[in-house]
Amino acid sequence: MALALGLTFTAVLLGPVSSKVVERNLEVFFLAAGVLAALLSGQFGWPLLHAALREPIALTITVLAFGVVARLTRSTLDRWFEALLAKVSTRLVYFSLIVVLGLLSSIITAVIAALFLVEAISLMKLDRESEIIAVVLACFAIGLGAALTPVGEPLGTIAISALNQDFWYLVRLIGPFVFVGIFLIALIALMLPIGRGPSLKAERDEQTWGEIWMRSAKVYLFVAGLVGLSWGFRPLVDQYITRIPEGMLFWLNGISAIVDNATLTAAEIGPSLAHAQQRAILMGLLISGGMLIPGNIPNIVAAGRLGIGSREWARVGLITGLPLMMLCYLALRWIG
């Protein structure tokens, strides 16, 4: 069983980055992989089906609701933001955008926060280098903040489900690290030069109602698949991951730079882990997830809509993420 689950885990990690077919049908792939992992580990049954049907509901409804709000209020928000840009310095707007979207992403979801970011960046009329820096830093903050609740992004949903904890558990577990991280990123933004010039190519076409509904349906299927993976990989967590020290878990999860962090959460998080191990895994995933485009949902959304290339993202993401990883590691060692 362990060998079969290990092969399934390898396929889950490599499939999205090695196959265009899998990348285009990610939700179906994860749903199938979740079913397979559950069958191999003997976890498939009504309790799993009930969890897979129930757990995605809150996040899906939130994505749908705020998607509708964003579509209905887009023109009004654009006018407010343009008026703000006319009265407040770009640097302060930049700082505020990072902090506000980082903190609100756990409520409005990472997807909607990334869409608001794209809209705001396209209105700021900065040069390409400045906009890339702004987007990467803001996506770091969004990725951190969205993980604090189960309605922010799939990582939070899966972690709360796997640990069988209450809505605010992740705020208590990693909240101080996340809040400090968001403000550090915003302070970095204050110190960087900001130039005017031709902006990135933003897809500012109005999203159709069909696209909003389809996005919500994809979120539901994606999270349902991750629930299956979480249940299916639980024997591996109990047998192997619980034995790994938290410091090693933190650095091993640097792989999240190239693999969506919600996938790794499903594979690694379980109730048998100590609090220190849970904290180390989640913080390793959240910080490294901002370093490259595939690591997190807001990265994928923003880079796709603004035409940011992988190398352009990596130049900013790695320079930002690696020092943050070191600072977080030292903080984890200090409190541990």
Secondary-structure content class: mainly alpha
Strand content: under 5%
Helix content: over 70%
State the helix count: 17
Radius of gyration: 19 Å
- Kindly report the average pLDDT value: 86
Biggest beta sheet attributes? none
Poorly predicted tracts of residues: none
Total individual domains = 1
Q: Compute the number of strand runs.
A: 0
Task: Name the helix and strand elements from N-terminus to C-terminus, one letter apiece.
Answer: HHHHHHHHHHHHHHHHH
Shape: globular
How far apart, in Å, are the first and last alpha carbons?
34 Å
What does this molecule look like?
This protein is mostly helical and 336 residues long. It has one domain. 77% of the residues lie in helices and 0% in strands. It is built from 17 helices and no strands. It has helices at residues 2-18, 20-24, 26-41, 46-54, 56-87, 90-108, 110-124, 128-146, 154-163, 169-191, 209-232, 234-239, 246-252, 261-268, 275-288, 297-306, 310-335. Helix 5 packs parallel to helix 7, helix 9 (154-163) runs parallel beside helix 14 (261-268) and helix 14 packs antiparallel against helix 15 (275-288). The model has no long low-confidence stretch (mean pLDDT 86).
